[in-house]
Amino acid sequence: xxxxxxxxxxxxxxxxxxxxxxxxxxxxxxxxxxxxxxxxxxxxxxxxxxxxxxxxxxxxxxxxxxxxxxxxxxxxxxxxxxxxxxxxxxxxxxxxxxxxxxxxxxxxxxxxxxxxxxxxxxxxxxxxxxxxxxxxxxxxxxxxxxxxxxxxxxxxxxxxxxxxxxxxxxxxxxxxxxxxxxxxxxxxxxxx
Length: 192
Prior knowledge:
Blueprint: H1 6-47, H2 63-82, H3 88-102, H4 106-121, H5 123-143, H6 152-161, E1 168-170, E2 181-183
């Protein structure tokens, strides 16, 4: 079989087309869920009294970190797009993995032989999976941020306002003899 066997190339393209429909459907459902969640969160924020401690805004992500994150994300997306080449499904094993493994230590050759066997027996599945993993990693890096919308600052605000976390106090005794946390109002009982 050649690296650009038309049967395998057609199978990879068909698998990617089917998976694209699935990924777009999942993204649409996630977008709808995010919009509903944001609307619910906005209603809850409006219901808070104006005097509630809303905390300070989250710190901005440093420019150098953002540049690195977006740059590496773009590289992952480009790499995933390069995996779409017709010869990648059958050409990676003999042209990349096997030559790289030949000069490696024994444990690395063993791992490479497992990867080679998996890729050789399932070239369509592995090639399409690698495309989605790389594009997903890149998109995650490009779209992630440490700013508003990540939820980290909301958790801090809720804790400072006393919302969403029960008040805790220490029990005097437990079975192990160690102090443990218990919700306020729970009676201190000696173990039986």
